[in-house]
Structure formats: C-alpha cells, structure tokens
Amino acid sequence: MPSHIRASWRNSGKKNDVAILLWPAKSPDLNPIENMWSYLDNKVRDRRPQPTTLKELDVALLEEWAEITASTCVKFCLSIKDRMILVRKKHGGAINY
Fold first, then answer.
1. How many whole angstroms separate alpha carbon 53 and alpha carbon 42?
2. Cα separations (Å) of 82 from 29, 32, 40, 53, 96?
3. Which end of the chain is more exposed for a tag (fewer CB within 10 A), N or C?
4. pLDDT tens-digit profile of 25-72?
5. Where are the domains of the chain?
C-alpha cells in the first residue's frame, strides 16, 4: 500500500477511535485462518484417491471443511498467543509454526 494511503488510513482510524495494530515488516501472517487453510490442504492431499478434476476438488474441499470440528478451530485461535511470542522473539521474522 502506498505510504500516502497508509497515512490517510491511519489518520482516519485515529479520528474514529480505531485501534491500529502495527505489524513488523517481516512478520508472518498471524491470522488463524492461515492455519486452517493449511490444515484443509493437508486433509485433501491425504485423500485416496486424490481429486483429479475441479469438480472432485470442490467436493473434497466441501467434505473436508464439513469435518472440521469446533475444537480444531479453538486450537488454532488459542495458538495465537504462542505465535505472537515467537514472532516478538524473532523481531518480526518468520517462525516455524
């Protein structure tokens, strides 16, 4: 994002009392959905036989998504604190999580 747009966005956030998180430039994405996509990808890759058409892939993704439990979602959300600690220790660098 160009700096003049970032500055404008930050200023509008301050005017509207919006908390702005300053992410380190080299920080990995700490959004738990990224872990969910990886989990889903692994579940589909583990299927036998593997999907070979877009329709089969669509079906496989929907089936695997439906099997994701609430406890799996909670696990990914609760991992944020540990990941944030690791990112801070790496001064915003990549972590192996």
1. 18
2. 13, 12, 22, 38, 12
3. N
4. 555 567 788 889 999 999 999 999 999 999 999 999 999 999 999 999
5. 26-89
